[in-house]
Amino acid sequence: MSSKDAMSNFIDLLDLKCILFKPYIDAHVAQKEEENRKAREQIEREEKVKSEQVNGNEVSQETSIEEKKRRLIQDALNQQTYAQFRAYAEDQFPGNPEQQAVLVRQLQDQHYLQYMQQILHAHEQQNADNKVIDVIADSGIVQTPEEEISEIGPANMWTLTNIKSFKEHIRKEGGDAIIKIGHGETVTVRVPTHEGGSCLYWEFCTDHYDLGFGIYFEWNKSPTNQVSVHVSETDDEMISDVDAAYDEEEDDEDNSELDYEDEYENEDEETQLYQGQKDTESGRTGSQPRKTTKIVNRSPFSIISPIMRRDCHQEVYAGSHCYPGEGVYLLKFDNSYSLWRSKTLYYRVYYTR
């Protein structure tokens, strides 16, 4: 008999003579397996705790770095805008330093949030810039190397909750500060830079409904410092506004009057030029490209803030922008998306030294 067979026979005999031996062995094996499982779970928990501690340290370090970056950015923005916001606060609360300080802090916080939003929407703004460039290319505007657009900084924008008092103040001032914008119309307020100024401010709100708003800068020195308002219903609002402004400037310089017969002849020529093609969106017809003799080689413009719909019926929208040079600011109030509703606009623009 081999040793293996002897061991097997011994176990069978022991199992036969001692009935409790097998349950004892089974229980012992199960206990060992349970101890091993608990040991593995303990090791896994310890490793998980260590991993969480490491990740927590990394997150806290990242949070600390982000907080430092945020403070650096906000401090830099506050240094740039403190003088502007201080001047605005002094104008809003003259002789009240406490209210001025509170307003300055609120404006600085709103400016930081808007600055970060502009960074997040940089891609969308780039797409908007590309669309404007496509419009310029399709319209035949020619820009020579001497007319290259200079770099221009973003605008500072914030909101105010005193919309009722603002409307009352505008009503008392009277003048052209209240404009009714018809459905499908775009109103452009042209504000030339002033020789004695360094920064432009604007405030506006509406009754009941929102309104699109954007601001552009035209790199062309205006012969007058007068603020003018232009209403447009065409899809190429920027081009038509520039045409209208230049027509007025030429009329002021030459002191000449239009010949109505020539005007009608020009309209007949344009009708013949556009005859034959239908464009359901623009409303024009014709197979020839758009006339561009009036807008060739004119000063380019920069987009400070693209047109976006603003909830200006709930809050007063305000902003400022430091002069990038001599030119004309174009404040565009867009109601072209509205098919039925007209909007009542309350606005104010001024400059600071």
Shape: elongated
**CATH architecture of the largest domain, please?**
Sandwich
CATH superfamily of the largest domain: GOLD domain
Q: In total, how many domains does the architecture comprise? A: 2
Strand order of the largest sheet: 1-8-4-10-2
> How much of the polypeptide forms β-strand, as a percent range?
15-25%
Distance between the termini: 115 Å
Structural class: alpha+beta
Task: Provide the CATH top-level class of the largest domain.
Answer: Mainly Beta
* Radius of gyration (Å): 36 Å
Strand count, sense and barrel status of the largest sheet are:
5 strands, antiparallel
Order of helices and strands: HHHHEHEEEEEHHEEEE
Give the integer mean of the pLDDT values. Answer: 76
